[in-house]
From TrEMBL:
<dbReference type="GO" id="GO:0016887">
    <property type="term" value="F:ATP hydrolysis activity"/>
</dbReference>
<keyword id="KW-0813">Transport</keyword>
<dbReference type="GO" id="GO:0005886">
    <property type="term" value="C:plasma membrane"/>
</dbReference>
<keyword id="KW-0067">ATP-binding</keyword>
<protein>
    <submittedName>
        <fullName>ATP-binding cassette domain-containing protein</fullName>
    </submittedName>
</protein>
<dbReference type="InterPro" id="IPR003439">
    <property type="entry name" value="ABC_transporter-like_ATP-bd"/>
</dbReference>
<dbReference type="Pfam" id="PF00005">
    <property type="entry name" value="ABC_tran"/>
</dbReference>
<keyword id="KW-1003">Cell membrane</keyword>
<comment type="similarity">
    <text>Belongs to the ABC transporter superfamily.</text>
</comment>
<dbReference type="InterPro" id="IPR003593">
    <property type="entry name" value="AAA+_ATPase"/>
</dbReference>
<keyword id="KW-0472">Membrane</keyword>
<dbReference type="GO" id="GO:0005524">
    <property type="term" value="F:ATP binding"/>
</dbReference>
<dbReference type="InterPro" id="IPR027417">
    <property type="entry name" value="P-loop_NTPase"/>
</dbReference>
<keyword id="KW-0547">Nucleotide-binding</keyword>
<feature type="domain" description="ABC transporter">
    <location>
        <begin position="5"/>
        <end position="239"/>
    </location>
</feature>
<dbReference type="InterPro" id="IPR050086">
    <property type="entry name" value="MetN_ABC_transporter-like"/>
</dbReference>
Length: 239
């Protein structure tokens, strides 16, 4: 398998001017993710895990290092140097991101959010409608909520909607930032089923998890982080 993603020497710092502090979030991170792999990152809260994903997604700009990504549209691309237009395209068509938080436009219903994600991939209205209802039903969101605004949803409902919106696009690369944090066991299993399906269809996944049991039989390799650096990595050969 060829590498879809290769991170070399990634470092990210933050300056807190009001406190006159310089904080090193991650230092000299190296990760190679082959096409079709599921690579997990574990570690305590505040160890720098989410910073890596935000650098990949373009939310943060890095000070040092490179993020080589094999884009279907652009070919080999260093995400650390990608233009805003390129990153917007990749977010719409190739790279999905799921976090614990749902940031949406006001006055946009759950159905509209998921449907719009499918339409961005170039699908027609009829298929988008069918796929929207299919995935909302999979995550057992009450049909009475489909045409409601997510601002009224519980935390678990918002998270399930966030996952549905990202996964329905079947991205080339999926970034998962604690996607099961506030879900019950049944909902976690539904997420796991979709991850397994996406992997069979070729999606590559880089994910952050505290729930090690959830990662069982999914993860090919695990990187453990402590204080912004990798303390060890484990390759699972029984998956």
């Amino acid at each position: 398998m060829e590498s879809l993603l290769e991170i070399k020497g990634l470092s990210k710092s933050f300056d807190l001017h009001n406190l006159d502090k310089h904080i090193r979030a991650v230092s000299d991170i190296d990760i190679q993710v082959k096409e079709g792999e599921f690579v997990g990152i574990t570690g305590k809260s505040g160890s720098g895990k989410s910073t890596i994903l935000k650098c990949l997604y373009g939310t943060y700009r890095i000070q040092e290092g490179s993020i080589s990504y094999e884009s279907k549209a652009f070919g080999p691309l260093n995400l650390a140097e990608a233009t805003e237009r390129q990153m917007l395209y990749l977010r719409k068509h190739e790279i999905g991101y799921v976090s614990q938080f749902l940031n949406v436009m006001p006055r946009t219903t759950a159905r509209q959010l998921v449907k719009q994600a499918i339409l961005e991939m170039g699908e027609n209205q009829q298929l988008a409608e069918l796929e929207t209802e299919k995935i909302l039903a999979h995550f057992e969101l009450d049909p009475a909520l489909w045409d409601s605004y997510p601002a009224t949803f519980s935390g678990g409902e918002k998270l399930r909607l966030n996952i549905a919106r990202a996964m329905v696009k079947k991205p080339r690369l999926l970034l998962l930032d604690e996607p099961t944090a506030s879900l019950d066991q049944e909902s976690k299993m539904k997420v796991k089923l979709l991850i397994e399906q996406l992997m069979k269809e070729g999606t590559t996944i880089l994910g952050i998890f505290h729930d090690l049991e959830f990662m069982n039989h999914l993860c090919d390799r695990e990187y453990n982080m402590q204080d912004g650096v990798f303390s060890y990595s484990t390759k699972f050969t029984n998956f």
